[in-house]
Design a protein that fits this description.
It comes from Leptocylindrus danicus. This protein is of the alpha/beta class. The chain contains 31 helices and 28 strands. It is globular, with a radius of gyration of 28 Å.
Amino acid sequence: MSSTMFDQIANKFKVVDDIMEHQPDSNKVALVFGASGEQGRAVLDGLLLHAHYGKIYGVSRNITNAEKLLAEHKQQEHIKGRVHLIEADLAKEESVEKVLMETKAESIFLVTTTDMPPHSKSCKVGEMAEYESIKKFFDTLVKVYNKDKISRHVLFSTADNVERINSMYEKPPIQPLEDGSVVANYSGKGRGAEYAMDLLADINDLKLTLITLPFLHSNFLGAAAPVPNETQTEWTINACLGENAIDMFSTSDLAYLVPAILEKPNEYDKQNLRISAEKITMGEAASYFASLFGKDIIYNPLTFDEMAAMPNLPSAGCMAQLGQYIADPRSAHHIALTEKVMFPRKPQLFKDWLLTHSDACALTNVGLNLDPAPITTVCVFGSTGMEGESVVKGLLKDTRKSYQIRAITSDIDSPKVKELKALDPDRVTIVKANLDDEGSLSKALEGAQGVFLVTDFFNFYHTGKTGFDYRKDVMGEVDEKGEAETDMEELHAKNIIDACEAAKTIKHIVFCTMEDINEMNKELDLGLADSDVGRFDAKARAAAYARKKKLSCTYVLMPMYSEHFFGLLAPEKRIDEETGRESIELAVPMKEDEPLMCMSIDDLGKAVANIFDSYQAVAGHEIGLVTDFVTVTEVAEMITEVFFQEKTNDNKVKGRCVEKRDVTVDEWVEARGTHTKDLGAMFGYFSKTDAVRKRRSVAKTLELCPDAKPFRQWLEANKNNVQFREKLGLR
């Protein structure tokens, strides 16, 4: 297909370049084989949103089908001129060679399919055809390399060569089918991967990484979907997977996994990464179905013969073999390895995957219809803080429904509480709760469907506590070694989480949390000094606790608030003692070229309202909110242009300038007092822009909250803000 045709197809997809997470490198090219399949589409999402590629080519045997599927794909708005669809056939050497030569792609994702009966004469025939196409691909790869000498990294989504593994036993645990095949849809891929490993072993410029996926969650929309009885009063999941826990994974997480691997070709070269998000039994999976849909759904563990005899399934014998192999503990995968590769993203768990796919046609077609209970009553913890106030306002402004809001507080007589109540006395109820008292929390949550959870690290400052000692007052009791036994902020968050789990009416929690900076530092080798970053770490540990609960939860990470540039980070008026010159200086402990993530706190409320409106779509997701990455120099320039400069009649610009003043973290902390010590470590982390971008997404933020304003627009919208102008010495 010509490049002109590539462009004609790609131009049908629309996206705005400035919402991409990274500035694309026009010299970096990626190639995705199997672009129209489930895995290929997930990888395209990941390469577009979480990688730096200037061009991405999607390859499919049927370009018409690929174009249709991509157009229907939920992320298609992100596919613009950076994605080019190519029609090519892995089974044809000249087709593969042309694609490799013309695209010059250095990063390649490869996934293949097994043509099983009735699309092939037998399972063995399908296996052999798949193996030959994989073999031909890698042979062609070497051939092309010998011509163009371009270094390439291939990530091959493969499977185990079960036929070879089975033959190693004196008494093979899996009996071959009549055609001699053993788990044909695995063994062909596995043989191909073994061939590729041997072929590329001594070619340093051709990197190869294998990922071996386990039982995919999407199988519950196919062969493992619940089947109803005639009256649709009971559903059974019929599978030959035994009673033991098996490894599972969500295909959508390839969007994070694949870019992470392709970023480090040397680290993962010639490795087989056995991927898994969790181990659960099919009985547990059935119980999640039953709990979500409120139906009688059970697991029916089939024997091999029962599975092999299933009607209307031409490859039933192969599926029975596959069940035997997956249920065998010797097929185990590695959860810890997966978490390390995906870090800092967390793999999606089945309970969250099921809620996000509860409206899938495969389920509605068998009578499993879930009309998610609408959330109309929301408890807002931390209601008097910046985040809580924004959420209360965001819910009140939502025109889709009339939320009843419970503003949870420990001090019902505070001025801030009265201000919240005054926003809408009919819809805002002030509820007193003790975060140390389970009964108090249960009463506050009674009858509510939604919860916004944020804990306030600076609560001690807000209450005017004197003689503050971080280790004693925030970290709880200190033992004789001087080590903290409990973290009160973490404990309070866990108490709320436990109360939500006990309250049967809670449908969804939006947890405003943060990263564990020490964990990020260790796993990503950021080179930061170890330190306690209380306002981050306690929230991160509480979020990890929530993930283990049977709760529907969305985790929202907040950036630096734009409002801080008129508060904690506000420009200051300085007078030179020698010259008497007056200047306005912005001193933030960030280097000139280090972008700082920011978003207005006002936009949090809108985002949370949108989450509660469609909570089933984001269950289990972590959403790092950010509308802009701006340097301190850019901030100074924008404040100058918006607040201080104006054009004269002769079109000249006049006015004062906000100047950037270099300051170290230690100098900045010393000037502001002891309570900002952990903020010094925070700025050290913020300076690691690549690490920060791994957790926060402008594109996802604007998808969730289209009206969220970039920093410049936010400044212009607040040009007449009296409080901000007073901070700048303006009237």
